[in-house]
Amino acid sequence: MGTKTDGEDIYIAWENIKENIKTSAKKSIGLQELKQHKEWFDEECLDLLDQRKQSKMQWVQDTSQNKVDNVNSVRSEASRHFRNKKKECLKDKIVEHETNRKIETIRGFYRGISDLKKGYWPRINIVKEEKGDLVADCHSILGR
Question: Which one of 38, 49, 59, 119 has the fewest CB atoms closer than 10 angstroms to its CB?
Answer without folding.
Answer: 119
